[in-house]
């Protein structure tokens, strides 16, 4: 394709610069025109070429909707499969995808990968804000990218003749160029509406690279590669009479009579000697060598363009999933907000109306039936949640995990207000069911998982524990939890613990550590649960008798 200062790779990778092509090296060369006394391109397509060397590596057209240019200050941390299962992330993925497999794959890849650079998170939030403000524009760009990635590419066997190979390479290339033009036109229409650096970089790059002049030259070059007026190539004699230096020239111009419209195109041909066997004619072999290289170059250029569209589609797919989730939540009356991101350092957690999105998606009328929590845990690194059974403790735990993951993916969260510091990954230790293989008991299984977590955790990670060590007695569990959680918090790990270990909770409460925050599931005197958490010292009971009266209202049992 024509040389562009912002192309997709080196000259032979991304386009077909005008000039002569050496099939042995896939290089085009400038031809000395002795008639003019100086170097110049031959007439025809060559006269459109700039004077600079076509082998110069052009700059790539760069864009990234997920992160700014340059390396991030810190690397992201992936959530483990256990975390996704414990939090129920798959339901969120399905809700975001709405049966679009590309979106499903994108959100599964992006959401669990926690960004740890606050600047990158804010960059992604700005792109998302543009997407939320102009959803129709983003969906249009996504549909164009999907259409481009669906353009059929043909596999060419070794036995196919070179002219057939070239035609099969040109067909998808022509469609891709037309789709590029459609993409640029769409970006031109929407460019002024975007405020984010990511979308402005994309639309600005397309406007700078895919100019009308550039696209016209691309179309002209593709039309020339049809070779409607024959081929022109040359070679030199090497040792032993072998042909070397095979060079394909610019296609010859149409005859004068045809340029004036007086003659129809006649196929260009030659007559091979009758003694030549099929496939062994030297001229045919030379033509095949030249055209095979051109076909490979065109095919590779199409690969690069389709790779560009694939990357654009996959990145836009994440934001399409966010748009879908935002639409579903807001239609149900669930509050959402872009969180305030604090860099890693002092522990921060402050939220108003924090809800679990999975519960909001699965509950009828979530605006009135799902209760939000207001928590001020700034400066606290250990949150201990106790209180009544069925009081919303586990739901709150999952809502914190969801919010942290969604914030560090650059998404909105289900709350009226949310702010937190960046954490080096979200990890979970939830009570598991019985081991059906009977290889070990529940306590041994819990300890094995915790041992693996300790080896995996980073300083400044977030650990969510739901009824850890409940498989053993209160005294033994207290002994295990005391040393373990003290060591983890000292190492900088932030812990949110839901527990019924009253002995441990009371022992920890007596320490009066300023980094601890005790929350309690609210319960009315008549046993009613509001599913709200409030600060409060741990109670000696989980009020299981309330559940007993619910199950056996007449007092039986």
UniProtKB/TrEMBL annotation:
Q: What are the boundaries of the region Disordered?
A: 20-49, 244-282
Basic residues: compositionally biased ranges:
37-49
The answer to whether keyword DNA-binding applies is yes
The UniProt record lists the DNA mismatch repair proteins mutS family domain at 380-549
- One example GO MF annotation: mismatched DNA binding
User: Cross-referenced SUPFAM superfamilies, in alphabetical order?
Assistant: P-loop containing nucleoside triphosphate hydrolases (SSF52540)
In its UniProt record, which GO terms are filed under biological process? mismatch repair
Which of UniProt's keywords are assigned here?
A: ATP-binding, DNA-binding, Nucleotide-binding
Instruction: Give the residues annotated as coiled coil.
Output: none
Signal peptide (UniProt feature, chain positions): none
Q: Which Gene Ontology CC terms are recorded?
A: cytosol
Q: Which SMART domains match?
A: MUTSac (SM00534)
Pfam families in the cross-refs: MutS_V
Q: What is this protein called?
A: DNA mismatch repair protein
> What organism, scientifically named, is this protein from?
Nocardia stercoris
Q: What is the lineage of its organism?
A: Bacteria, Bacillati, Actinomycetota, Actinomycetes, Mycobacteriales
């Amino acid at each position: 394709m024509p040389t562009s200062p912002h192309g997709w790779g080196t000259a032979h990778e991304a386009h077909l610069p005008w000039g002569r092509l050496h099939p042995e090296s896939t290089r085009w060369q400038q031809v000395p025109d002795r008639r003019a006394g100086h170097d110049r391109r031959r007439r025809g397509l060559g006269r459109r070429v700039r004077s600079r060397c076509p082998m110069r590596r052009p700059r790539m057209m760069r864009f990234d909707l997920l992160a700014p240019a340059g390396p991030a200050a810190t690397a992201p941390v992936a959530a483990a499969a256990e975390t996704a299962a414990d939090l129920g992330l798959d339901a969120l993925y399905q809700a975001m995808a709405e049966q679009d497999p590309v979106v499903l794959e994108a959100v599964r890849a992006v959401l669990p990968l926690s960004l740890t650079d606050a600047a990158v998170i804010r960059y992604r939030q700005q792109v998302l804000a543009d997407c939320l403000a102009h959803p129709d524009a983003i969906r249009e760009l996504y549909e164009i990218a999907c259409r481009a990635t669906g353009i059929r590419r043909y596999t060419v066997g070794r036995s196919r003749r070179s002219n057939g190979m070239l035609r099969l390479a040109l067909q998808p290339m022509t469609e891709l160029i037309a789709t590029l033009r459609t993409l640029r036109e769409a970006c031109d229409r929407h460019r002024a509406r975007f405020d984010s650096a990511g979308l402005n970089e994309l639309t600005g790059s397309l406007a700078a690279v895919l100019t009308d002049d550039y696209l016209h030259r691309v179309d002209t070059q593709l039309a020339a590669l049809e070779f409607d007026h024959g081929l022109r190539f040359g070679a030199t004699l090497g040792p032993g009479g072998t042909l070397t230096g095979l060079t394909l020239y610019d296609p010859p111009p149409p005859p004068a009579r045809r340029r004036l419209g007086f003659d129809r195109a006649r196929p260009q041909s030659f007559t091979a000697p009758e003694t030549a066997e099929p496939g062994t004619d030297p001229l045919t072999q030379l033509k095949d060598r030249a055209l095979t290289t051109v076909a490979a170059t065109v095919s590779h250029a199409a690969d690069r363009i389709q790779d560009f569209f694939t990357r654009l589609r996959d990145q836009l797919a994440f934001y399409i999933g966010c748009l879908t989730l935002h639409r579903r939540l807001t239609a149900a009356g669930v509050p959402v907000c872009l969180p305030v991101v604090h860099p890693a350092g002092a522990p921060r957690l402050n939220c108003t109306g924090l809800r679990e999105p999975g519960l909001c998606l699965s509950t009828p009328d979530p605006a009135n039936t799902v209760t939000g929590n207001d928590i001020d845990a700034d400066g606290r690194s250990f949150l201990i949640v106790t209180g009544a059974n069925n009081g919303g403790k586990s739901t709150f735990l999952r809502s914190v995990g969801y919010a942290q993951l969604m914030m560090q993916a650059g998404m909105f969260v289900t709350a009226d207000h949310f702010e937190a510091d960046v954490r080096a990954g979200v990890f979970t230790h939830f009570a598991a069911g019985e081991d059906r293989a009977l290889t070990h008991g529940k306590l041994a299984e819990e300890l094995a998982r915790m041992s693996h977590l300790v080896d995996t955790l980073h300083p400044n990670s977030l650990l969510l524990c739901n009824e850890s060590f409940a498989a053993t007695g209160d005294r033994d569990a207290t002994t295990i939890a005391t040393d373990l959680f003290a060591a983890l918090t000292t190492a900088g790990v932030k812990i949110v613990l839901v527990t019924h270990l009253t002995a441990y909770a009371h022992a920890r409460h007596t320490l009066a550590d300023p980094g601890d925050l005790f929350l309690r599931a609210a319960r009315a005197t008549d046993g009613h649960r509001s599913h709200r958490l409030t600060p409060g010292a741990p109670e000696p009971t989980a009020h299981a008798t309330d559940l007993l009266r619910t199950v056996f209202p007449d007092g039986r049992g």
